[in-house]
Amino acid sequence: xxxxxxxxxxxxxxxxxxxxxxxxxxxxxxxxxxxxxxxxxxxxxxxxxxxxxxxxxxxxxxxxxxxxxxxxxxxxxxxxxxxxxxxxxxxxxxxxxxxxxxxxxxxxxxxxxxxxxxxxxxxx
Length: 124
Known about the structure:
Elements: H1 2-10, H2 14-27, H3 34-47, H4 51-64, H5 71-84, H6 88-101, H7 106-119
């Protein structure tokens, strides 16, 4: 079920992917892949530039699976989506959460780069 949803995601079949990942979470809520399915829901919305839906999906990863392997990436990607909607303060908070809670992750490297990038922006 997860692999089918991921294949739909890879093929750009966004609504099918979301439906598949959501069904996976409902069917296997305690699976070690449930956090990944929720993260992919966020990724699907992000790929469609549906920033607020992506933020909501990433929040679900963070809240429901804080110890899961997708949490660090969810914080990082939530920050990117928050930046897209113009909410730089909360984006910085998201990225700082990655650095604080997941300092050895790949997401921490990306979060640091994002923090550095927005710090170099000229004041508006």
